[in-house]
Amino acid sequence: MEILRLNHLAQHFSWTRVYTTNRTQLPHPAKLFFCQAKQDGSLDLKLMAPTLLAAEKEEAKAVLTLFLKKQGLSNAIAARTINKSDDFIDHLVSRLHSKHKSRYLVGRELTTLEIRDALIPYLETLFEEHGNILIDVVENYPNPPMKEKAAAPISIPSPLMESKKMKAMSRVSEIDPAGKLRPHIVYLLELGMDIEQIKSITRRFPSFAYYSLEGKIKPVVEFLLELGVSKEDIPIILTKRPQLCGISLSENLKPTMKFLETLGVDKQQWAKVIYRFPALLTYSRQKVKASIDFLYEIGLSEENIGKILTRFPSIISYSVEDKLRPTANYFRSLGVDVGILLFRCPQNFGLSIDANLKPVTEFFLERGYTLEEVGTMISRYGALYTFSLVDNLIPKWEFFLTMDYPKSELVKFPQFFGYSLEERIKPRYARVKESRVRLLLNQVLSLSSSDFEKALKKKIKKMELDGDSSCSTKDVGTGKKGK
Fold first, then answer.
1. Which Gene Ontology BP terms does the record give (predicted)?
2. Is 105 exposed, middle or buried (0-12, 13-18, 19+ CB in 10 A)?
3. Whole-structure pTM over 0.70, yes or no?
């Protein structure tokens, strides 16, 4: 049994069947790559810029550190584990590249929140599967830990709970006299799950092992398929929220959906909504109503509330009094229209005021911007506060100081901080300097490659027509000589 357990552990770190649809498998690499699509639909691999890679590694380390501390580890043990886990950190970054490869193709960096949202569910799955040996799993990646090695304890589960979990998990692999698994396990396997995934769900939610096929699981799955959810996505949804199978379709799920549709959720988008945040359908009516009432309170229209719930349904998971209201008050202090900001970037309202929001505000104030200008920047680019201060804002600010633009340009175009420094900002600006012309910061970064080159040629041609081949960047852009 121990050999089987170690084999399952080793297999876990390969891309599992449920997550491999249309995905290139990335083996444990010496260097990290991200996928780039070719015109024929195949994938090409391009080496990541070292500075961007280093920044993402630091983000992954921060996420892992916070996760370990959340599980009860001391600062010292968490730090020791991080120092021994370079291979696992590389593995986490490779997952980011696989999940968000489309972002890299256009030179856009991931925000801190996007990185956290991509990695934490994966870490939670590992913890659910490996429990007290998670430290060994992380430190010894990609090799499974040996039985005799002592594992650092993360938590001390109660004997009663452990007994309940063990009984539930044993049901997953039980064989009847005919040599067959239980019907609902067979059904789940046919959907594309494997025994280890089902055990992982059961370890986290033991009741899942006792759900009947005809009375619970199959009706919910068929209902999701009718909504347009693809069969390949069903295992992912059940893994995220197995409680869905324990909720009555007629008394809970359908009425909740009807209620949300009256609030503006696009009924044609239910497949995407449920895939993004299946927990939405498991919240109580009171919880949902409290969140909706707050959205009305800050001035959002019914139509916009519906769009938020469709695009970012996890807003319902935020506590009104502990998270949404304090965050709204903070942004109001910056002169921001909170309703507009929440509509554009609801992710901001999941950030910590002290750990995330205030440091970014202070960063810009210390560099000479007024409180009003900072408010303008966040109003124009809602994702600004979701970026890492150390790995994103500071290095890009330092390069901006070399770009011969006034500071006011960032107030006009704060989206500057959303582009990759190495993949977009530096090479584009180098082309501008080489051409001896001047473009607005917006034009330098936001235009497609072809349109950017067209803009450069147009400026160069205008310079030549003006008859002043040595014109300064100050003269270019006015369209008139000597002005």
1. DNA-templated transcription termination
2. middle
3. no
